[in-house]
Design a protein that fits this description.
Length: 252
């Protein structure tokens, strides 16, 4: 089992290095079959934070505090709220919700280039998106969808978008992990597992960030979203069948 977990971490780190996102999407869609949510989500947050700290170096020159501040303020509200929901999730519900979220998000992002730009957006709207994204990070380890979609609809180039959402993710993930530690969710066994994962994630995130300079972010993201759409479907279908079976048995 450890080998499979390490392989998923390495692949997720590489994709995050390439695109600046997607560690949580890839890792969650695969780890959800191997572990319960209370282990998957903290590992996703730990791994994503490590990968972000490596890959953010490639866009550090474009980080602007004024641009990311409203998102972080909203995130400070959403992170602890989301983290409190983690213990209430069971494996079947977690896979269903994670898969459905992946599918909806990927379908939207595959058409994102056709969506209108948000010229009216301001600090208040940014703060609300930050709160939602941080809440999803705390509960599911997948706070990327609203934040990445929102940034893609602003009049920012790819580098500005990555610098904004990657900075936000680093700050929010530190906050979420602090809440996990305080609530006793992050324990010794989990940290030992992450100690094995850390070198693989660091190396593959660095490699991904190097490779990303040679390819179009837009084309690569389309490939990632297509694969994640399939991953989401693979999570939803078995979970939906299980839920349907439970309902059918109760009715009869």
């Amino acid at each position: 089992m450890l080998v499979e977990i390490l392989l998923v971490g390495a692949v997720s780190g590489f994709i995050q290095g390439l695109s600046g996102f997607a560690f949580g999407f890839v890792a969650t869609s695969l780890w959800a079959w191997m572990m319960e949510p209370q282990k998957v989500v903290p590992l996703v947050v730990l791994g994503s934070l490590l990968g972000q700290c490596v890959s953010i170096l490639s866009v550090r020159h474009e980080i602007r505090v004024t641009r990311v501040r409203p998102f972080i303020i909203g995130g400070a509200i959403g992170a602890p709220l989301g983290a409190t929901l983690l213990n209430a999730l069971d494996a079947m519900a977690f896979r269903a919700l994670a898969g459905a979220s992946l599918m909806v998000y990927c379908l939207i992002m595959l058409k994102a280039s056709h969506l209108p730009k948000l010229k009216w957006a301001g600090a208040t709207a940014d703060g609300c998106i930050g709160m939602v994204s941080a809440g999803l990070t705390g509960a599911f380890g997948m706070g990327g969808p609203p934040m990445i979609l929102w940034c893609s609809l602003r009049e920012w180039n790819i580098v500005m978008q990555r610098a904004t959402y990657q900075t936000f993710f680093v700050v929010v993930q530190v906050g979420v992990l602090s809440v996990y530690i305080w609530r006793g969710i992050v324990e010794a066994t989990l940290l030992a597992m992450f100690a094995w994962l850390a070198p693989a994630i660091t190396l593959t995130s660095w490699l991904g960030s190097r490779v990303s300079r040679k390819y179009s972010d837009l084309n690569f993201q389309k490939i990632v979203f297509g694969l994640l759409l399939v991953s989401g479907a693979l999570l939803v279908v078995p979970a939906a069948r299980s839920i349907t079976s439970v309902i059918w048995r109760q009715m009869n």
